Amino acid sequence: MNTASVSPAAGSMQMEAQLGWRQSLPHQILSGLPLTLFFPVGVMYGGVLLFYISLLVSGSYLQKLDRVRQSPMVLPILGLSLVSVVLAAMQDVPPELHKEFWPGFFHYQTYLFLLPFLAVPAGQWQRRAMHIFFAGAILAATLFVANFLHLLPVNTLFRSYVIYEGNKSILLGILMAIAAAWMLHELRAHRDHPVWRVLAIVYVAATLVLLAKTRTASLLFFLLCGVLILRQIGWSWRVVALPLILLAALGGGWKYALSLPPPTTCEVRLVQAGPWEIFKLRSLCTVHQLHDFSQGRKVSDDGMRLELFKITGDIIAEKPWAGHGIATWMHLYQQKARGLISATMTTPHNDYLLYLTELGVLGLLALLVIWGGQFWVSYRMAVHENPDTKEMAMPLLMLTIAMMLGGMFNAILRDGVFGMAFMILLAIPLAGMRNRANK
């Protein structure tokens, strides 16, 4: 066989098969890390620590460094870190912020954790990692069902499935949404066992919508399905028609929801009802809270994010370009929100507003450059001649959309629970990608 005709991915797979156990250890551990995301955060960090140790013991340091250096994501990632370092150096940190400054600073370095993952070349481990991620989502769905049937004990391992624990519970829903969308994408590319694949998708998606108790994840799943539909029908008038139909449906649903009386309570944990009733309750509460806030009326605890967004916007307007400084949001917000229900919040539950408050327009642009880079890499994958590379384009696109949407309602990069999970998932499609100039 002519060696020039062998694709880079096929060559890397042959290389992976020939590696010794020590050199293949990073591949094995990285492919298993997606499963740790569905358990307590300590399990995830323990797996990441094992991966770092495996990088050290596996040798070939110059090759690993070269892979990282040639990744198209390196410069955007280092750009965000550079912006945060420069602005931090210019910042005069008051005494009351000394304890919060360094933790806040390191939150802006979350993307640096992606770089060691990029030292692993492309190979069969990528598909293995995706299948392990799918298995984790099915396991998570099963645990949610077991909790609904009162079969799950309240212990450290299963606590996030039994009790709503904020960011960790939201993350579980987002992971299930991404996994279901990835499975739907893979169903198009691989037609083997179609019945089992469809059943798995329906099982995870239904559990997500009815039992996971996170509106962000449900919205994300339907959005990713829309992206797949648009990709399937191609560029035509239908690309415009489909969003218009969806907007018309949302508008009709909005008017219908407002015609119904507002719920007596929006505290889901206080309501004893079936999954579908809970879903309707949260939908009605969202619509009525948005409407009340737009009319200047007081919102309840469930609608405090609207209050968060408004006051944070006023803070941003004071110093829009370079921001107020790292770790300043909580201090500034609590001063302006005294007496309000949102005064105890520790983040604005919105990465865009957090970056604008603390790093200004410069910081937000640095973040958007990274996300724009992810979009660009996914496009390059889509037009690649190698089918293995093409298949990873849509998962990367979906991850980027998930991060951008999640950042509207949660601290995706401010919280290590979200941040590290996304770095692990990003490593799967980004492995082996190089700058065009280095190919």
Automatic annotation (TrEMBL):
It comes from the Bacteria. It is found in: Membrane. InterPro entries: O-antigen_ligase-rel_domated, WaaL-like. The chain crosses the membrane at residues 37-61, 73-90, 102-120, 132-150, 170-187, 194-211, 217-233, 352-371, 392-411, 417-433. It is a multi-pass membrane protein. GO terms for molecular function: ligase activity. This is O-antigen ligase. The lineage of its organism: Bacteria, Pseudomonadati, Pseudomonadota, Betaproteobacteria, Burkholderiales.
